[in-house]
Write a structure and sequence with these properties.
By secondary structure, the protein is α/β, with parallel strands linked by helices. It has 2 domains: about 210 residues, 3-Layer(aba) Sandwich (Rossmann fold), CATH 3.40.50; about 170 residues, Rossmann fold (3-Layer(aba) Sandwich), CATH 3.40.50. It is built from 14 helices and 13 strands. The strands form 2 sheets. It has a 7-stranded parallel β-sheet, sandwiched between helices. Strands 10-9-8-11-12-13 form a 6-stranded parallel β-sheet, sandwiched between helices. Helix 1 crosses helix 14, helix 7 packs across helix 12 and helix 10 packs across helix 13. It starts with a strand and ends in a 21-residue tail after the last helix. The C terminus is likely disordered.
Length: about 400
């Protein structure tokens, strides 16, 4: 079987996922197309040699947001014509090229799998737009591979039957982050001095943009320091973005706040390894892969309830806490709880490792492979039943032609 997959760009966390899929499906061919080389909001750098799967960029060296949408759609459609896969795995429907791929699969009666991690609360939504979106998704995708239960619930609201939704989409290479953190800890104080890091610190990793809520985190940290005094941990901010000047100006009034700049995936592990706790206070976050990374590195976490990963990854009082991103005082109190003598941060970090061990590139590959296999088997049976007239006029499958839902 040939499986063609589409992503906006080749992100660092995508490589181990598709490598695991190709390793699992040794007799099949896994081909991945990225629409472009980079995205405007991300500065990722990845090596494309020896990936372990077939890879191509639709427009090499280009930023995907700046490529003509019609040209992208035509390039993707031509690629699918040439590859002629049995299954097409499509990341979302935001880009016209992704929608073109879904239409190609429907036109050629091939399996189409939706990949996504959006949920109902990650952005403002209107009933009319969601109704149109639901109709389109039901008509063009055969099944979905979702991040977790929040995404699954959202898809169900769009009309996708729950039995055709697999979960476990958002994973990282846990072992790589665990190894990187261990290497950093082995260097201990020497690395801490070289990176100019406090002895104990809370860590934020992400863009300095409004949805990440870093300004409220700084306000919470200021209140926390007033209460904790000399026992307060530091705060290290890894990232960059449009709000950086404003955040630096606010942080000038505070002690032990370090701006570490944007770090590539292989370098950020050092900051996890020397940290004491991750804080992700986002007001909008589809999942929050930095939570996976921090947990793999053995850290407790404080995560906003707006993050899609909370139901799967955060066990309150076991490996961390859930915060209200708009409650500055509440976040400050949680900073105080985690840094107090009443909490065993190391024990929480070990719990994080155990929890995130269920979310790996290998489990990702197993879930996606099962999704493809089950959906392909259904589709073949459906085609055969239709050819021999076995479907009754009142069957649910038959009704899809006149009343599109999830099966087509």
């Amino acid at each position: 079987m040939k499986i063609c997959c589409l992503e906006p760009v080749l992100a660092p966390y995508s490589i181990p996922r598709f490598r695991a899929l190709q390793s699992l499906r040794r007799d099949d061919t896994v081909e991945l197309m990225a629409l472009g080389a980079t995205e405007r909001i991300h500065e990722w750098q990845v090596r494309t040699a020896n990936l372990g799967f077939d890879y191509v960029e639709a427009f090499p060296g280009k930023t995907v947001d700046q490529i003509d949408s019609k040209a992208l759609a035509a390039r993707v459609t031509g690629w699918l014509d040439d590859s002629d896969p049995q299954a097409v795995v499509i990341t979302g429907y935001y880009y016209a090229a992704m929608r073109a791929a879904a239409r190609w699969a429907k036109r050629h009666q091939r399996v189409s799998i939706f990949l996504g991690d959006s949920h109902w609360e990650d952005r403002p939504r209107t009933a009319l737009k969601e109704s149109i979106k639901g109709w389109w998704v039901r008509r063009h995708y055969d099944a979905a591979f979702a991040a977790g239960e929040q995404t699954a619930s959202y898809l169900v609201r769009l009309g996708v039957p729950r039995e055709w939704i697999w979960t476990g989409y958002d994973v990282v290479d846990n072992q790589a982050f665990a190894d990187g953190a261990a290497a950093a800890r082995s260097q201990g104080d020497a690395l801490r001095r070289r990176l100019n890091l406090p002895e104990r610190y809370f860590l934020f990793v992400g863009r300095f943009a409004p949805e990440k809520n870093v300004l409220r985190l700084l306000e919470s940290y200021a209140r926390y320091r007033q209460t904790a005094g000399q026992r307060a941990w530091g705060l290290v901010l890894v990232g960059g973005g449009p709000q950086e000047p404003m955040l630096r100006a606010r942080a000038q009034e505070l002690r032990d706040v370090v701006f570490a700049g944007f770090q590539q995936a292989d370098a950020v592990s050092a900051y996890y390894g020397l940290a004491s706790c991750l804080v992700l206070p986002s007001v909008s976050e589809t999942w929050g892969l930095v939570v996976n990374e921090a947990m793999a590195a053995g850290l407790p976490v404080i995560v906003s309830h707006r993050c899609g990963c909370v139901p799967e990854l955060v066990r309150v009082g076991v490996n961390g806490y859930v915060c209200d991103p708009f409650d500055i005082g509440g976040m400050a109190r949680l900073l105080g709880v985690v840094s107090s003598d009443t909490v065993d941060a190391d024990k929480m970090g070990e719990a994080s490792r155990r929890i995130v061990a269920l979310y790996t590139p290998e489990t990702w590959a197993q879930s996606l492979a099962d999704c493809i296999e089950r959906t392909l088997a259904w589709k073949q049976a459906h085609v055969k039943a239709s050819a021999y007239g076995w479907l009754s006029s009142g069957s649910w499958l038959q009704k899809q032609d006149a009343e599109p839902q999830i099966r087509n």
